[in-house]
Amino acid sequence: MKNNRTCKLAVLLFVVTAMTARAQNFPSNTDESKVPPYTLPDVLQMPIGKTVINSNQWLHAQRPYIYHLYEKNQFGRYPATKTISRFKILETDNQALDGLATRKQVRIYLHPADTSVYMDVLLYLPNAVKTPAPVFVAYNFSGNHTITAEKNVLLSNRWMYFRGKGVVNNRATEAARGTDTASWQLKTILSKGFALATAYYGDLEPDTATGYTTGIRTTLKEVLNIQPDEWCTMGAWAWGLSRIADYLQTDKNIDAGKIALMGHSRLGKATLWAGASDPRFALIVSNESGEGGAALSRRWYGETVQIITAHFPHWFVAKYKTYGDDVTKLPVDGHMLLSLMAPRPLYVASAVEDTWSDPKGEFLSAREASRVYALFGKKGIDTSSMPPLNTPVGETVRYHIRSGKHAVTLYDWEQYLKFASEQFGLRR
User: What start and end residues bound the annotated signal peptide (predicted)?
Assistant: First the structure.
């Protein structure tokens, strides 16, 4: 009896100590032994007290309810106003990348009258594919000119958040060309029969707390009938991904039924919100999206709500920050965001050295979201243990943790291409 009482007191002391650490604004935790117990909201528990038992209940009752929780507490209202984007082909080269691809540069005008409000899309089509090609859509971090060394790709004139090689006073120079080719693996993507469409995320809104003043939340507020504080930067970036889909549906060289969406890090969060908001994205990939994305906020590990909202207040609506001191009051968590992709194929990936993104939290989130996929007869992740490094697990919901750091690598792309080929029924 005494031993049992001592054990219970030790557990209680552990929980109190861990929760006190959070309350005292400890910056983070990367010690698994210090993660306190937590309880996730049940993704299948309806507000009326019943449990979702079939896909019809999910699609028509529970999914809209959860989606609204995200609009209210994390991302803000997604613009409902229909827009008519205008597209202009700025350049075409059918012998790009030494003949491997056809390159198109497309300007998407987002405002009906103001031609300064636009985003530039760089599209590569595989020349070896003679039928409409499936396509991966993804934002880049520093301009279309960074993903390839090709000289004819337009050099972005936008403000740059990341100050890497070739960026002077937050503006790109010629020295920035091809500085991020490792993240894109163009030849691998094209050789597998996929097209790639990318755009600079800063075309929509600069990645700063005041970026909204020059971004689309201000320039389009009358067009979209939504005020800047009704949504957030993540919402603006997500909305822009849908405008890329608008164009792709008009391009006869693209299979509009096979649009895969991929996002890394902060852009992985935007990707998940775009995937939740736009059903035209037939497959979604979250690459190390972490806090506010695939990871579990209730797990005190890596980045937290408190930290992310302190450093990047513009990423989410103001209400999200109010949960920083007590995430148990947050009515949603990462597994619920992932569940909004169902029944579309979903891939979640982590890197072992990227503790900030909480790899285990991302895995557990994907596994929990698999319960929703089961309603559709889809098999997700059924193992309860983290898989070994570089060993994907799961079917319609898939996960891997690879060796290395926070990045998008050749290994990642190889898995995503294989996954998309399988899910789209392609022979590649």
Answer: 1-23
- Tens digit of pLDDT for each residue in 221-246? 999 999 999 999 999 999 999 999 99
Cis? peptide before 126, omega within 30° of 0: no
H helix intervals, 183-304: 186-191, 216-219, 221-224, 233-248, 266-277
Show the tokens assigned to 250: 């008009």
- Is the Cβ–Cβ distance between 194 and 253 less than 8 Å? no
Query: Cβ of 375: how many Cβ atoms within 10 Å?
Result: 20
What stretches in the chain show pLDDT beneath 50? 1-24
Helices (H) and strands (E) in the chain, counts: 14, 12
Which of the 8 DSSP states describes residue 42?
Answer: -
Q: What is the CA radius of gyration of the chain?
A: 22
Q: What are phi and psi of 221, to 5 degrees?
A: -65, -35
Written as six digits, the tokens of 318 are 């103001």
Pairing between strand 397-402 and 346-351?
parallel
Helix (H) or strand (E) holding 171: strand 171-172
| CA separation for the pair 253, 196 (Å, rounded) | 12
**Single-letter amino acid code for the residue at 115:** T
400 is catalytic: no
246-279: pLDDT as tens digits: 999 999 999 999 999 999 999 999 999 999 999 9
The owner of tokens 């890197």 is 351
CA distance 123 to 253: 11
Q: Which of 242, 265, 277, 370 is catalytic?
A: 265
List residues bridging with 107 in a β-sheet. Answer: 88, 120
Distance CA 327, CA 336 (A): 15
Provide the 3-class DSSP secondary structure of residue 357.
helix
Closest CA to 256 of 122, 134, 91: 134
Cα dist from 297 to 36, 158, 292, whole Å = 12, 33, 7
73's tokens: 């507490």
Known catalytic membership, residue 335? no
In CATH, what number does 68-423 get? 3.40.50.1820
* Active-site residue (options: 28, 111, 191, 406): 406
